[in-house]
Amino acid sequence: MVRPTAAALVVTVIAAAVVAIVRRRDGIRPWLGLVLAPAGLLAYLGFVAARTGSPTGWFRIQQQGWDSRFDGGVATVRFGAEVLASGRSVLEVVTVAVLLIAILLVVLCIRQRVAWPLVLYGALVLAMDLGSNGLMNSKARMLLPAFTLLLPVAMALAKRQPRTMVAVLVAIAVAGAWFGAYALTGWPYAI
Q1: DSSP alpha helix (H) spans, the chain
Q2: Alpha carbon of 36 to those of 5, 56, 116: distances in Å?
Q3: Angle at 34 between CA 29 and CA 38, to 5 degrees
Q4: 51 class by beta-carbon count within 10 Å (0-12 exposed, 13-18 middle, 19+ buried)
Q5: 114, 137, 144, 172 — which has fewest CB within 10 A?
Q6: CA distances from 54 to 41, 48, 65, 157, 180 (A)
Q7: Residue 29: CB atoms within 10 Å
Q8: Confidence (pTM)
Q9: Residue 83 CB coordination number (10 Å)
Q10: From CA 131, how far away is CA 126, in angstroms rounded?
């Protein structure tokens, strides 16, 4: 699987450039974005292809090293169903909960009319995360670049009293620190 952030960012920039071109806005800038956005990703894939001797080198490495490939979400659905049915570990249950919350956040972003490029980027990162198999316990970590999906939470917190904001943010930070520490100590594949 190509890095979710890079691919999602390239697709988002290309989509925004196409919209700007169709609306005839910003002169040459959208055309430059259309050409330059994929350049870094293509150069990286080309570098890996040259090093591995295969045009699909990056994908082969991902599959051989981590059994990671895009399967349309089959493995993720299977993982989620097994975890929710068995409750094997806190790490896996929290991972499934994070994925479900991320889906809910996409819906909230759309309902609250968050700027479409931000929603598109976050939704693409989420779609690539959900659609790939491989190390399931890394799925929550792979969603970190989809921070744009947290805009409804930020907008809701902005309307609260400062002490409420601080209490919620401290609770989130403590829960995140606990989850990270638990993942590092409780998961045999943690680095």
Answers
A1: 4-22, 29-52, 57-66, 74-86, 90-111, 116-131, 139-142, 151-158, 162-186
A2: 16, 22, 21
A3: 130
A4: exposed
A5: 144
A6: 16, 8, 16, 49, 36
A7: 12
A8: 0.86
A9: 19
A10: 8
Instruction: Output the CA–CA distances (angstroms, integers) from residue 100 to 62, 71, 111, 178, 183, in the order listed.
Output: 25, 18, 17, 20, 19
User: How many other CB atoms sit within 10 Å of the CB of residue 122?
Assistant: 25
Residue 136 has pLDDT above 60, yes or no: yes
191 vs 17: CA distance, rounded Å: 39
Contact 57, 51 (CB under 8 A): yes
CA distance 148 to 62: 26
Record the tokens describing residue 121, joined without a space: 């980027």
Q: Give the number of other Cβ atoms within 10 Å of residue 1's Cβ.
A: 20
Cα–Cα distance, 53 to 47 (Å, whole number): 10
Q: Using one digit for the tens of pLDDT, what is the confidence trace for 61-78? A: 888 887 888 888 999 999
Contact between residue 81 and residue 89 where contact means Cβ atoms under 8 Å apart: no
**Which residue in the block uniquely carries the two structure tokens 């293509």?**
42
Residue entry with tokens 């390239």: 10
Region 109-134: mean pLDDT is 93
